[in-house]
Recover the amino acids of this structure.
């Protein structure tokens, strides 16, 4: 185990929705903002979104994936990527993964595997609407449950946004990661 100065302590929280939230009025996106499904999402766009949204939050796992592996993942019929754009510029996304979560049995579930906005799109109310769209898309699969996880490395608004949309924690875990090198 690394010593304390070489590592960061992280708490991961798993949250779930066990039923579709009550319908809310569909408030349109601000002018110029659109949300579209990429079917399938290209490797270049998947990598660009993953880096732009996640780099500040230590998203590095997929950096090790080959283009072939990422292309196969994006082409999987159980994976859906939705991209939020301001004009034609991507500013956020969510990725859904359909299947069963082995931690809760065999009920069909949808994981919001990745979710977020690029830094310049944060603080404008887009995260709330984007999460509501992800929830609707998840339950449209159809699923008996939509779930996700966040951690203490994520944006400070992530957990409050999830809870405000009705997600309830069902598990937490603690782990350590290597402290990123400073340049």
């Amino acid at each position: 185990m690394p010593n304390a100065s070489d590592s960061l302590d992280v708490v991961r929280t798993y949250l779930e929705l066990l039923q579709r939230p009550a319908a809310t009025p569909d408030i349109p996106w601000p002018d110029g903002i659109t949300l579209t499904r990429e079917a399938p999402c290209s490797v270049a766009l998947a990598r660009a979104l993953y880096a732009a949204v996640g780099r500040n939050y230590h998203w590095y796992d997929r950096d090790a994936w080959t283009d072939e592996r990422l292309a196969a993942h994006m082409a999987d019929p159980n994976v859906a990527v939705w991209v939020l754009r301001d004009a034609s510029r991507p500013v956020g996304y969510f990725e859904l993964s359909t299947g069963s979560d082995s931690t809760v049995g065999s009920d069909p579930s949808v994981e919001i595997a990745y979710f977020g906005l690029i830094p310049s799109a944060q603080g404008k109310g887009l995260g709330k609407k984007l999460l509501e769209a992800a929830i609707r898309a998840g339950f449209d699969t159809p699923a008996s449950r939509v779930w996700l996880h966040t951690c203490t490395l994520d944006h400070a608004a992530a957990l409050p946004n999830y809870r405000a949309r009705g997600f309830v924690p069902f598990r937490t875990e603690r782990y350590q990661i290597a402290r990123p090198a400073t340049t």
The longest strand covers residues 89-100.
